[in-house]
Design goal:
Elements (H helix, E strand, L loop, with lengths): L10 H6 L6 H9 L8 H10 L21 H18 L6 H23 L4 H8 L5 E2 L6 E3 L4 H6 L18
Antiparallel strand pairs: 1-2
Length: 173
């Protein structure tokens, strides 16, 4: 009867056993850097569950539960929803996709909601509040609520668009 020596099938154990190996693991890690990406489908599903995106198509819609609150509260709520995924996924490799979702889906939902509330259209709301949904107090001229503009959204996080070689590493504080 002979006793067979078994080794685990890992590169380190094979190298320790004198079988070589171990080289392929180093070459893979050096050739393919680790990429951590934000779950885009999950983000869209959550926005759909909150009522910001249509159930049938990925189009922004008005948020029905916000039609009874002030326009400033609508914009502040939408800005909070927009900043949340940007800060959570700021270190992900596809942050530019998250920014695109925020910049399009949530911004337009923030425009459609006051339009629905006032029984108007987005075309009539944009000249009143602008695309950035600036709500200004009529008497004092003080800004009550504002959705972050595209430049401010670009400064959140440090994700890089593969089509754009420059990327920002600053954050809004």
């Amino acid at each position: 009867m002979s006793v067979r020596k078994l080794s685990l099938y890992t590169p380190a154990s094979r190298k320790a056993a004198g079988e070589g190996g171990g080289h392929w693991a180093r070459s893979i890690s050096s050739e393919f850097p680790i990429q951590i990406e934000a779950p885009i489908k999950k983000i869209l599903r959550r926005l759909r569950d909150r009522g910001l995106i249509s159930r049938r198509r990925p189009w922004p819609i008005h948020v029905a539960c916000l039609t009874n609150v002030s326009d400033g509260d609508i914009v502040n709520w939408s800005a909070g929803i927009a900043i949340s995924p940007l800060s959570y996924y700021r270190c992900r490799d596809n942050l530019y996709q998250v920014r695109t979702i925020v910049d399009h889906q949530i911004r337009w939902s923030a425009i459609f909601t006051p339009a629905h509330k006032h029984k108007s259209s987005a075309r009539n709301i944009i000249p009143k509040y602008s695309k950035d949904s600036n709500i200004v107090n009529q008497e004092g001229g003080k800004t009550l609520a504002e959705f972050p503009n595209s430049i401010e959204l670009g400064k959140l996080g440090s994700g890089q668009d593969p089509n754009n070689k420059e990327h920002s590493t600053t954050s809004l504080v």
